[in-house]
Design a protein that fits this description.
Strand content: 15-25%
Oligomer: single chain
Number of domains: 2
Structural class: alpha/beta
CATH class of the largest domain: Alpha Beta
Number of helices: 9
Strand order of the largest sheet: 9-8-10-11-7-12-13-14
Largest sheet: 8 strands, mixed
Order of helices and strands: HEEEHEEEHHEHEEHEHEHHEEE
Length: 313
């Protein structure tokens, strides 16, 4: 796999055999991870904090974004490499780079089954789910394989217009009807921000066959639920959660966040929200350590609270 050059220092790390993650904690400390091994310390190729900071700004610029003292954090994807940069600021004087290399971007469902991510029963369920245009939510912790599974599921929909909405474009389907919309940070004057909620609203006007959200974590959840409950079927999304049991509280915490206190959220009580989620999503798929560890469905308990029950099929 070849990459666009990100500078000689990072190129020397990216070409290390089997490397999947590179973590730079200031110019003197660099860690790499190869496949499923533990993190290992390597000799830093950087000569100074200034050199590292300049490289971080250059890389983020290649991805069409910027980092500075006013906006010290940014994410970009360049040739299958996701880079998160946190430049030195008042909060931390060091520049930090967190780099993930997506080597499996084109894996399909059959390949993931061969790799042991799930079995033949799950494979059959996923294909039935897609054929029936059922909405699904993929849950898991960071690095668990949520996006890998979402991408493989959407890749089955080759004849459909799929619109993916992400903070950083990672899904990247090689199909002619695939449309990728990416959020945009505010400019240096604080203007021009485009968030996920805005993207969901715009995507609904673009005649999608299927909607996909890279990760739900804000007010876009309510807009997505409204869309799925008013006829937009076959949608998929991911959410950060460590287990099936954690998914309801994670969804509720999103709705209860300070930014959702007004507008539509203020008219949506706990039971109403639970009913909306249960009606919208047919399946919840839990992924841990790149394995589908459980599949469940939402239900509402006697107290009106949203819960997930594991399904054995």
């Amino acid at each position: 796999m070849t990459f666009q050059s990100l500078g000689p220092q990072l190129d020397s790390l990216l070409t290390m055999p089997g490397v999947t993650d590179i973590l730079v904690n200031g110019y003197q400390q660099v860690w790499v991870q190869r496949s499923s091994r533990s993190l290992e310390s390597v000799v830093s190729p950087f000569q100074s904090e200034g050199q590292l900071a300049a490289l971080a700004q250059q890389i983020i610029g290649l991805g069409g974004r910027h980092v500075d003292q006013a906006n010290p954090f940014a994410d970009v994807v360049i040739d299958g490499i996701r880079v998160h940069a946190a430049i030195g600021s008042v909060g931390n004087p060091k520049t930090h780079l967190s780099i993930r290399i997506h080597r499996e971007r084109l894996f399909g469902l059959d390949q993931l089954a061969d790799f042991g991510m799930f079995g033949l029963r799950e494979l059959g369920l996923f294909r039935q789910m897609l054929a029936a245009r059922q909405n699904f939510l993929i849950a898991g912790p960071t690095g668990s394989g949520k996006t890998t599974l979402l991408r493989a599921l959407l890749a089955e929909c080759v004849a459909e217009r799929v619109i993916a909405l992400e903070d950083v474009a990672e899904i990247g389907l090689p199909t002619p009807n695939f449309v990728s919309l990416q959020t945009r940070q505010a400019n240096i004057e604080g203007k021009g921000e485009v968030n996920l909620d805005r993207l969901v609203r715009e995507a609904l006007r673009m005649r999608p066959d299927r909607l996909a959200i890279g990760e739900v974590r804000g007010i876009e959840l309510l807009t997505l639920l409204q869309a799925m409950n008013t006829g937009h079927s076959g949608a998929g999304a991911t959410i950060h959660a460590n287990s099936l049991a954690d998914v309801p509280s994670r969804l509720q915490s999103i709705v209860s966040a300070g930014g959702l206190a007004g507008g539509a959220a203020s008219t949506l009580d706990r039971e109403g929200f639970a009913q909306s989620v249960q009606s919208a999503f047919s399946w919840v798929i839990q992924v841990n350590s790149r394995v589908v560890s459980a599949i469940g469905t939402f239900f509402i308990d006697a107290g009106g609270s949203l819960q997930v029950v594991r399904r054995d099929f």
